[in-house]
Amino acid sequence: MIRPALLSVIALALAACGPLVQIGGNTPAPDSLLTLRATAEPRPYAGPASAGTALAVTLPLVPGTLQTLRLPVTTSDTEVLYLAKASWAEQPNRQFQRLLADTLASAGLAVVDSRQSTAAPARSLTGTLREFGLDVRNPGAPVVRVRYDAQIAAPGDRTAPLLLRRFDASEPVPNQTPTAVAAALNRAANRLAADVALWAAN
Question: Where do the H-state alpha helices sit in 56-142?
């Protein structure tokens, strides 16, 4: 049997060697991480808002190609690769959710975070972020594409109409570096979010 004193010595020796497992994987850390930011500034709260006018923006669903921190590149109708050295700081659907909420708030809508608010909002904006990446199927004219299938419903009210609409936005890219592609995606996402805000406000 190994005595407790010997076990302590072994433990100290292992600790001196440093961690046995590298947190975050064995791949080198990226030079930078990509983010999205709303260009429309949310309006400051001017007072209490009625729950009957509140809108909750839920986390968009995504296909498997977007369930990652990598940036997809569509090379053909049947093949998707990922852009080298491109890594999001957070999954794009979570960043798009915040961008969408900020843009809706800037349009004067009362946007609530359903995870923090105990009040049930009158309406809920849900959807699927179907495309969010670079498209190089036409090598001479690469573009980024954002596609969001949205629906607005009144939770618990079966008599309220269900609104459905698809939103598309594209933007040319000057080059295929991660910085240029992310900037183009940010412009396309903001333009699409502005269209969603106009639709939701009517």
Answer: 92-106
